[in-house]
Specification:
Elements lengths: L11 H21 L4 E9 L3 E2 L2 E2 L6 E9 L4 E9 L10 E12 L4 E11 L9 E10 L3 E8 L9 E11 L4 E12 H4 L1 E15 L2 E10 L1 H6 L7 E9 L1
Antiparallel strand pairs: 1-4, 1-14, 2-3, 4-5, 5-6, 6-7, 7-8, 8-9, 9-10, 10-11, 11-12, 12-13, 13-14
Length: about 240
């Protein structure tokens, strides 16, 4: 989440209610996952870039996540990273709790729908917010994603996000990944912005991968998030298990 969002904060009771619902759903998922499968991921990255903007002021990040999936496709996950926002927020960590469902619609199509709660435990201001996200995937390599929140970037205003992306295999060990997104933030910030990214992934020794990604945003993003948007390159060592 962009560090600029701490300037506009939504009503505490409303966001606490959403947070409670998200927590309840996560617990319900855990309780019903009698025959669940478990997996996780970890990454060391030179920069934490989210929707085109850095979340660590361009500094490195350590990230890890865990997910439990039931036989019926219902899942719950937790993911965390260090962050570096404006000093007055004192935000140093991010924890994302997600509950959702994913499954195949046909041989070629798959769907993932979830509710993700972004939480910043160390922040001295209320930066927490929740977003509903849906992702439609074709042949496991092409996707379209939509996100919507009534408290976008921890404000009390709505925001919507759309992304199109593709994975392009270049062999058994190398693939390209490209995505373009647009974030509608007119209600919260009187502006919206676009971003794009292009990366190369090398699976040099499974499950370890090396990823290098170039990011770019439009001028609106630079105006909305000075010093955080623009062009940047990140490199990451990541693994899934």
């Amino acid at each position: 989440m962009s560090s600029s969002s701490f300037l506009l904060r939504g009503p505490m009771p409303a966001r606490r209610a959403v947070s409670t619902v998200a927590t309840g759903l996560l617990l319900a998922t855990a309780c019903t996952a009698h025959a669940a499968t478990f997996n996780g991921s970890g990454a060391l990255t030179t920069d934490y870039v989210w929707r085109g903007t850095t979340q660590t002021q361009g500094d490195p990040a350590v990230q890890a996540g865990f997910r439990a999936t039931a036989e019926n496709g219902v899942y719950g996950s937790i993911w965390g990273s260090n962050v570096e926002f404006a000093p007055e927020t004192q935000a140093s960590s991010e924890l994302d709790a997600t509950v959702g469902w994913s499954g195949a619609l046909s041989d070629d199509w798959a769907l993932d729908v979830n509710l993700t709660h972004y939480r910043y435990p160390s922040a001295t201001v209320d930066l927490n917010w929740t977003e509903a996200i849906g992702t439609l995937t074709w042949k496991q390599n092409y996707w379209a994603q939509l996100g919507y929140s009534t408290e976008a970037l921890a404000t009390d205003e709505a925001g919507a996000y759309a992304q199109l992306g593709a994975k392009i295999p270049l062999g058994e060990q190398v693939r390209l990944e490209a995505a373009a997104g647009y974030y509608w933030l007119d209600d919260a910030y009187d502006d919206s912005y676009a971003h794009a990214q292009l990366g190369a992934v090398w699976v040099f020794k499974a499950p370890f991968e090396l990823r290098v990604t170039a990011h770019a945003t439009d001028s609106s993003a630079k105006t909305l998030f000075p010093g955080l948007a623009g062009s940047r390159v990140e490199a990451a060592l990541q693994a899934a298990f």
